[in-house]
């Protein structure tokens, strides 16, 4: 009996680890195969179009480029690391200002019918406007490229936060608010104890949309305004006809954008609501 039991346990152990291994292989093989196919197509295209660098040429250029990413030879000749940090700083400032203003405004629009009637038409009118259309106005107001780029980030980031937060507040069940009214809770208690936990998923969606849009816009804004930043660096490399550096910049922009979104969502999900 004990021998049969031991065999059953051994079989269960083998099946368990076999399933874990198969899951791990499926998680790894798919992305590896997809990336390998991407590199293969890239190689074929580069062989047909000589102006496009091959994966090997791009890799060697990337190794050389990232061997010293923080060199500084003057205002217009800085390493890719400094330009990337400059872009991230602008995104952080513009995105942070948008969150400070957009989320409370979204709460107010979703919570109060009078505020919704007043501001919803304005949001609907301005939301479809391209963020780059606001850039000349930023240059006119601030007389400098750096605050104008931050202004463009702020404008493009604020709308998803306002809209998603307002939608979340408006979809809170009325029963929750009725109970809060019966308990005679203050508006602050209603917001923090009732609305915030229910609206958090909608807020996270707005945050994800905003950070993705902000990172897209900063690259285009820096191409137009110049100075420092990954967008300016990419455009400068195009003027220098270093196509392999342009390809590297595309990969860097994509990787950083993915990391920003993943990190922001992971940090936001760590905030759990606990009742006092």
Automatic annotation (TrEMBL):
Set out the biological process GO terms recorded for this chain's protein: alkanesulfonate transmembrane transport; monoatomic ion transport
Q: Which Gene3D superfamilies does its entry note?
A: MetI-like
Give compartment(s).
Cell inner membrane; Cell membrane
List the GO cellular component terms. plasma membrane
Q: Say which domain of life the source belongs to.
A: Bacteria
Entry keyword annotation includes Transport? yes
Question: How does the protein's chain sit in the membrane according to the entry?
Answer: Multi-pass membrane protein
| Similarity comment: family membership | Belongs to the binding-protein-dependent transport system permease family.
**Record-given protein name:** Bicarbonate transport system permease protein CmpB
Q: Which organism is it from?
A: Achromobacter insolitus
Taxonomic lineage from the root: Bacteria, Pseudomonadati, Pseudomonadota, Betaproteobacteria, Burkholderiales
Q: Which gene encodes it?
A: cmpB
């Amino acid at each position: 009996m004990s021998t049969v039991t031991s065999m059953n346990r051994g079989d269960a152990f083998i099946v368990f680890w076999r399933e874990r291994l198969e899951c791990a292989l499926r998680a790894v093989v798919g992305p590896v195969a997809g990336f390998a196919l991407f590199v293969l197509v890239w190689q074929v295209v580069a062989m047909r179009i000589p102006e496009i660098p091959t994966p090997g040429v791009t890799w060697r250029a990337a190794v050389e480029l990232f061997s010293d990413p923080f060199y500084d030879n003057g205002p217009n000749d800085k390493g890719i690391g400094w330009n990337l940090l400059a872009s991230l700083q602008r995104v952080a400032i513009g995105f942070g200002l948008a969150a400070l203003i957009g989320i409370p405004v979204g709460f107010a629009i979703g919570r109060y019918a009078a505020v919704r009637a007043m501001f919803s038409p304005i949001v609907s009118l301005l939301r479809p406007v391209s963020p780059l259309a606001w850039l000349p106005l930023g240059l006119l107001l601030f007389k400098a490229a750096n605050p104008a780029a931050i202004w463009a980030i702020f404008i493009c980031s604020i709308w998803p936060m306002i809209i998603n937060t307002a939608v979340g507040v408006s979809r809170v069940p009325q029963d929750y608010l009725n109970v809060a009214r019966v308990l005679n809770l203050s508006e602050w208690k209603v917001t923090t104890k009732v609305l915030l936990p229910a609206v958090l998923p909608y807020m996270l969606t707005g945050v994800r949309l905003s950070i993705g849009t902000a990172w897209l816009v900063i690259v285009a804004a820096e191409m137009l305004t110049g100075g420092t930043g990954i967008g300016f660096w990419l455009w400068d490399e195009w003027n220098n006809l270093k196509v392999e550096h342009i390809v590297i910049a595309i990969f860097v922009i994509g990787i950083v954008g993915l990391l920003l979104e993943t990190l922001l969502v992971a940090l936001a999900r760590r905030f759990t609501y606990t009742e006092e």
